[in-house]
Amino acid sequence: MDEELELLVTAVVAADGAAQARAACRALQERVGGRVVETVDCSDEDPGCWSVTVRVTPGERVGSTAAAALSRSVRSLLRALGPGFATGRVSCEPPTAWTVVDDPDLVALLVPGGERLLVEAWTGTGWQPASGDFAPGTPDLPESDAEPEPVDDGTGPRLRLWVDVATDREAGAQWQSRAVASRVTREARLTGVARHATAIRVGFDLGRVDGDPARAVERVVAALGGTGWTPPERTERTVVSGWRRADPPMTGVVAVEVAAEIPSPVPR
């Protein structure tokens, strides 16, 4: 394996808006030499709370030992942040490694108003399918975990994505599945998380697209990459394609499903 590493640093910061949150993270961005790729309003969890994610491409590549390279890249970035940041435990479940700096006094030295940092390392294509087969099934996601459904304007198919991750930790499943979703769009909306016997299933709404549903599914599959996907299968109101590892690993992505939901005809 020889894949490029990607680093993500997410700062949780108290701010009055997106612009102020990004301004607070300017020193962090300059310190790591990255660019802001996402700013999210977290005020539903904590009033006045925003998260800002900075993407860093260190130019390092993964050799034969992915876990060592991932963990090493996280620790290297922590050391670059300054004294005191590289003392926490780094967790690793290839294709990702991560740590959380939950020390507001320390974080605020770099990010004014900052409360905590999440530092992640990813292999560029570590999750991608190589071979396998998949039988599309019915997603089983609790409504209690879903974000609000966007207003349905009745035009174009709505794309859905489900990612099954072998892990014991829901946070690890969400991080790995968000990396998959981000290959299609940075605007993926979490719709639910469900724990199964051997994996945790994470669902996303990828938004509406124009054109034929089967072509829309094919475009998503092409963006995700890899081989071993089932041909788009059309039911009455859905087009589905999927992939599953033939020999599931102990940890990591084990299955992916993409669906385009065909809108109902608008009553006349």
Describe what you observe in this structure:
With 268 residues, this protein is α+β, with helices and mostly antiparallel strands. The protein has two domains: 119 residues, 50s Ribosomal Protein L5, Chain: A (2-Layer Sandwich), CATH 3.30.1440; 119 residues, no CATH class. Helix content is 22%, strand content 33%. The protein contains six helices and twelve strands. The strands form two sheets. Strands 2-3-1-6-5-4 form a six-stranded antiparallel sheet, sandwiched between helices. A six-stranded antiparallel sheet has the order 8-9-7-12-11-10, with helices on one face. The longest helix is centred in the N-terminal third of the chain and has 16 residues. 40% of the residues are buried. About 9% of the residues have low confidence.
Keywords for this entry:
about 270 residues; alpha+beta; 6-stranded antiparallel β-sheet; 2 domains; 50s Ribosomal Protein L5, Chain: A
Short précis:
The protein is α+β, with helices and mostly antiparallel strands. It has helices at 18-24, 26-32, 66-81, 104-108, 170-181, 213-224; strands spanning 5-14, 35-41, 49-56, 91-93, 96-101, 114-123, 158-166, 189-195, 200-208, 233-234, 238-244, 252-261. The protein has two domains: 5-123, 50s Ribosomal Protein L5, Chain: A; 143-261, no CATH class.
